[in-house]
Structures are given as C-alpha cells and as structure tokens.
Design brief:
single chain, 119 residues, mainly alpha, 79% helix
Amino acid sequence: MRVLNGILSMMLIGFALVQYNDPDIFLWVPIYGIPAAWRAMAAYRPQRARRRSSSAALTACIAVAIVGTVISWPTEAGFWRREVWWDSETAREGMGLMIVTVSLLVAAATDSLAGRSRG
C-alpha cells in the first residue's frame, strides 16, 4: 500500500504543479495538494494517518470532495472522451474532482485496512 499511496501522492502533486498558468491557481493547487498530502501521510506516516483526529479531518475532506464533485459534475455528453475534455475546462475540472474524491476514498480505505491488519 505504501507504493500505491506514494504513486498517487506524486500524481496529485503533478496535477497541482500543472496549474501554474491557470487563472484560478489558488483554488486548484489546494484541491490537488491537500489529497496529495493525505496520500503522502498514508505512505510515509501511516500511524499518524490512523489517529482519531486525522480520521475526522480525512472524513471532512472526503465530504467536501464529494460535494464538489456533485456540484462540478460535467454536463457535456461524453465528457470522458479526449475531444470533449480537451476543449472544455468544466469537463476537466469535474474530472479532476472525481480523481481527488477517488484518491481520498482509497486513502481512507487503505488506512482502514492497515488499521484492521494491525489489530
């Protein structure tokens, strides 16, 4: 799980870095950066990720990500096709939030599984 969490953390950091020329950089860097930090914590400090306070904070981040994904769900038909998302910023943003949500859910699941295997 450490490798999976590390790879996903680096992927999210990469997503944050490519926001350098986006007009709303101050919105999107934290949207990708906070989940990247959760993934890094799950990879390199799993005992800290399983603390009760961390669990509550992760749950709050997941709730915000789900709400953001629902609000920003792409309305374009076939938004997952390259010819659509290549030209549609709303499709790219919606898909970015989907990736963030799935990443946070996987972080929570791996933390939960690791906690069970310890106990």
